Task: inverse folding
C-alpha cells in the first residue's frame, strides 16, 4: 500500500509540473499577443550569398536572452537552413513555418553564449541577429553546424551588406 501511495504522489507531482509548464507557456502567449506580426517571406528571393545549416534556437525580446517569443510556432526549436539573400535573412525550419528578417530591419549581429534558454559552453556558440519590427527589437538565435562561418555572417550583416 505504501508503494502505491508513493507512486501516486510522484505521479501527481509530475502532473503538477507539466500543468505548471503548460500554464506558463499559455500565459506568456497571452502576454505577447500585442507584439507586431512577424514579416512573411517574400515569394521570390534572390540568390543566397551565405547559407549554413543548423538549429533555429528561438527569438527573444532583445536584451532579455530568456524571454522567448511564444506566438504561433516561433518559439519552437527546429533544424533549419539559414540563408543570407539580398532581401534579408531567410530561416527555413523543418516542421515549422519559415522565418524572414528583412534586410532593412537588421540592427546588429553577434556571436553569443546563450539565447532562449539555450546555453552553450563556447562563448561563440550561437549566431544572434538583432532586428527591429514595427518599433520592437528582437534577437533571433541560430546554432550552426559549422561555427567557423559565424565571423563571415557577422561581417556581412553588420557591415550593411545584407
Result:
Amino acid at each position: 500500500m505504501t508503494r502505491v501511495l508513493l507512486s501516486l504522489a510522484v505521479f501527481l507531482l509530475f502532473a503538477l509540473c507539466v500543468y505548471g509548464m503548460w500554464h506558463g507557456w499559455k500565459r506568456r502567449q497571452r502576454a505577447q499577443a500585442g507584439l507586431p506580426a512577424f514579416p512573411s517571406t517574400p515569394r521570390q528571393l534572390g540568390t543566397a550569398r551565405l547559407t549554413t545549416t543548423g538549429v533555429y534556437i528561438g527569438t527573444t525580446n532583445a536584451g532579455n536572452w530568456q524571454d522567448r517569443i511564444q506566438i504561433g510556432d516561433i518559439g519552437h526549436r527546429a533544424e533549419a537552413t539559414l540563408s543570407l539573400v539580398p532581401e534579408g535573412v531567410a530561416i527555413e525550419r523543418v516542421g515549422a513555418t519559415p522565418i524572414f528578417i528583412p534586410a532593412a530591419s537588421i540592427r546588429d549581429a553577434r556571436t553569443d553564449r546563450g539565447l532562449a534558454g539555450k546555453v552553450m559552453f563556447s562563448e561563440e556558440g550561437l549566431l544572434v541577429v538583432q532586428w527591429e519590427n514595427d518599433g520592437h527589437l528582437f534577437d533571433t538565435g541560430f546554432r550552426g553546424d559549422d561555427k567557423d562561418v559565424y565571423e563571415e555572417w557577422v561581417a556581412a550583416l553588420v557591415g550593411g551588406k545584407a
